[in-house]
Structure to design on (396 residues):
C-alpha cells in the first residue's frame, strides 16, 4: 500500500493570506466586493462585474448609492449606518440596484464588517447574489393573485346582480299572476254561492276543479318565490338550535291539522351554524313532505335524529309514508319532478328542490333512502362552521 501524500497545513505562516483571499474572490461565482467605511467600492470580483454589467474600472471608487435603485436609497443608507455604528454585526437582506443597461437587479446582500488586529473596523466585505428571477416570479405571482382577486370580485358582483334580477323577476311575476288568480278564485266562489243550485253535478265538479287548480297555482307561485330565496337570498349565519327549529315546524304542522294521529319526535340538543330563517324553511319542506306523504296512514311517527361530529352535524328525517322507488331518486331534488300524484299527496314539485338548495348553500349534502309502502329517510350533512368561516362564499 502506498503512503498517502502529506497535506499542507491549514495555516502556513509563510503563505500570503491576502493573496489567497483575492484568488478565492476572483474565482468565486458569487458577486463579491470590498467596501470602505465611507461606502465606496474598493475592489470587486468578475462575478460582481458580470452581475452589474460594469467593468471594475467603472465601479471602484464610486459610492454604492450611485448604483442603488432610487426607491431603495434611504433603505441602503440605514443599512450602512447600522453596520458602521455596530448596531448589526452582519447585514443579510434584499436590495435593488440598477444595472448598466438600466434594468433592475434584485440582489440578496450579506455584508460583514472586517477588523484589524487591534479590533478597529477597517472595511466591509459584501457578498451579492442575484435573485432577480426569483423576485420577478414572486411579482408575477402577486400580479396573478391580484388579477384573480379582481376576477373573483367581478364575478361576485355579477352573481349579486344576477341574483337581484332573479329576485325582482320572481316577485314581479308572482305579483302579476296573483291578481288574475284571486279574480278566478273569487268569481268561482261567487258563482258557487249564487248559482250552485242551477248547476248539475258535473257543473259543480268543474267549478270545484277551477278553485282547486287556482289554489295549486297559488301554492306553485309561493314555491317559486321560496326557491328564488333559497338560491339567491343573502345568508346571515349564526349559531342555531336545530332541535328547536324542528320542534317549531312540527308544532305548526300539528296545529294546522289537529285531527291527524301523527307524532313528530325531535332529538334534543342538535346545534348548527347557518341562516336561521333558511334552516326553518328547510325543516318546513322536509317535515311538511313527511307529513304530507304519510297522510294515508292512521297513526304516524316522524323522527328527526342527528349526530354531532368533529367534521359537522348529520341529520335525518324519517317518515312512515308511501315512500318511492329508488330507481327515480336522481329526479327527487329536481324542480317540478313529482314521484307521486295528487291522490298520494303530490305537491308543487318544488319542496325538495328548495331543501337541496338550502343545504348546498350551507356547504352540506342531502340524499334520501326509501322503500315503497314503508317510508323514506332524508339525510343531511352540514360542515361545522364558526363566525370566522363564512358559509356560501360565492354569495357573500
Amino acid at each position: 500500500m502506498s503512503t498517502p501524500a502529506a497535506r499542507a497545513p491549514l495555516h502556513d505562516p509563510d503563505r500570503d493570506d491576502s493573496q489567497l483571499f483575492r484568488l478565492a474572490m476572483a474565482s468565486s461565482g458569487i458577486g463579491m466586493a470590498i467596501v470602505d467605511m465611507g461606502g465606496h467600492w474598493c475592489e470587486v470580483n468578475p462575478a460582481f462585474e458580470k452581475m452589474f454589467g460594469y467593468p471594475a474600472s467603472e465601479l471602484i471608487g464610486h459610492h454604492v448609492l450611485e448604483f442603488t435603485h432610487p426607491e431603495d436609497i434611504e433603505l441602503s443608507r440605514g443599512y450602512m449606518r447600522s453596520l458602521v455604528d455596530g448596531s448589526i454585526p452582519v447585514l443579510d437582506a434584499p436590495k435593488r440596484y440598477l444595472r448598466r443597461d438600466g434594468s433592475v437587479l434584485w440582489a440578496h446582500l450579506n455584508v460583514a464588517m472586517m477588523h484589524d488586529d487591534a479590533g478597529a473596523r477597517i472595511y466591509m466585505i459584501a457578498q451579492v447574489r442575484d435573485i432577480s428571477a426569483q423576485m420577478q416570479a414572486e411579482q408575477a405571482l402577486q400580479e396573478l393573485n391580484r388579477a384573480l382577486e379582481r376576477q373573483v370580485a367581478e364575478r361576485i358582483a355579477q352573481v349579486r346582480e344576477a341574483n337581484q334580477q332573479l329576485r325582482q323577476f320572481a316577485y314581479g311575476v308572482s305579483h302579476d299572476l296573483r291578481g288574475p288568480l284571486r279574480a278566478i278564485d273569487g268569481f268561482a266562489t261567487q258563482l258557487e254561492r249564487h248559482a250552485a243550485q242551477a248547476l248539475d253535478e258535473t257543473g259543480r265538479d268543474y267549478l270545484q276543479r277551477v278553485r282547486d287548480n287556482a289554489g295549486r297555482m297559488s301554492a306553485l307561485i309561493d314555491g317559486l318565490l321560496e326557491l328564488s330565496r333559497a338560491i339567491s337570498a343573502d345568508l346571515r349565519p349564526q349559531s342555531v338550535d336545530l332541535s328547536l327549529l324542528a320542534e317549531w315546524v312540527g308544532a305548526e304542522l300539528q296545529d294546522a291539522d289537529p285531527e291527524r294521529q301523527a307524532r313528530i319526535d325531535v332529538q334534543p340538543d342538535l346545534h348548527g351554524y347557518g341562516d336561521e330563517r333558511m334552516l326553518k324553511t328547510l325543516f318546513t319542506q322536509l317535515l311538511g313532505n313527511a307529513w304530507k306523504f304519510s297522510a294515508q296512514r292512521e297513526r304516524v311517527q316522524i323522527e328527526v335524529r342527528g349526530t354531532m361530529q368533529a367534521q359537522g352535524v348529520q341529520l335525518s328525517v324519517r317518515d312512515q309514508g308511501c315512500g318511492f322507488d329508488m330507481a327515480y331518486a336522481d329526479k327527487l331534488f329536481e324542480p317540478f319532478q313529482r314521484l307521486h300524484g295528487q291522490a298520494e299527496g303530490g305537491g308543487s314539485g318544488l319542496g325538495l328542490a328548495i331543501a337541496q338548495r338550502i343545504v348546498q348553500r350551507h356547504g352540506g349534502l342531502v340524499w334520501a333512502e326509501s322503500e315503497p309502502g314503508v317510508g323514506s329517510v332524508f339525510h343531511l350533512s352540514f360542515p361545522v362552521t364558526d363566525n370566522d368561516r363564512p358559509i356560501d362564499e360565492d354569495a357573500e
